[in-house]
């Protein structure tokens, strides 16, 4: 086990041997010393009795005893103390409030700075960086830490649980590179203490900053030329969003316009239910109009088809009549030509004869 440079009061803490106390030199007691002591004691007793008898004879009238300033109390102090001990004493009433005056920023920063200084001092005292030789801080962190470690070690290991292997003498190297000799239990205890000390030192260190830049880095976001434009757009959006977004539903009001309205113009109601009913009526009228228009167009189409059929029938009849007339005329022409030929032949025969 290593011994650190410690003060006299911390010596038992780290296992250092206590300095040997100086023994008082004892005097030899002999008969001459005892006789001198008894004679001196008798003279002192006699002188004391003489002075007491003399004072009683001379002071016949008793004097008024002077009040002691430390024994006397303030006026009505006992009444106030008795009132404070009562259960319903206002001294023990806790006053809670949900609202208080705003704290001054300077006072807040001052309190914060003092608390940070106290926290740093407390961490330094826990690490052992601050010496307290004169008991200025009234806190012995070394003693607290040692008591806590001893309590943990005593809870973890008991004399009954130690085996023969823990009592074997072994050698190990401590944190300072020195070769130590002791039992296996002592080696394990020293290793645990060293590990706990290193963990406490790591916990007391500040955390590594997260935004630390290591190596060559191009800070592209250090200057953003579009930032003023984005800020202006954000300001405009904030001004716009002050009103209701989206705006409330409003309907067209023809009474606010001065213009000529057409024949088919219609002013709808501002009431949503009435407006919906008017729209439904218009849809029904539109559907009825389209139905009537479709029926009329269908009738017109059917009539046109009928007329076209009649025209085709008339054309067919006219064509058939013309064909019949042509055939009749042709047949007549063909029947007249053979009769003429027969007459001519008869006439020639008669002439020849």
UniProtKB/TrEMBL annotation:
Residues 46-61 have a biased composition (Low complexity). Coiled coil: none annotated. GO terms for cellular component: nucleus. Pfam families: DUF4078 (PF13300). The keyword Coiled coil applies. InterPro entries: CCDC174-like. Residues 28-45 have a biased composition (Polar residues). The keyword DNA repair does not apply. Residues 166-178, 269-311, 339-353 have a biased composition (Basic and acidic residues). It comes from the Eukaryota. Keywords: Coiled coil. Residues 1-114, 141-191, 266-353 are annotated as: Disordered. This is Uncharacterized protein.
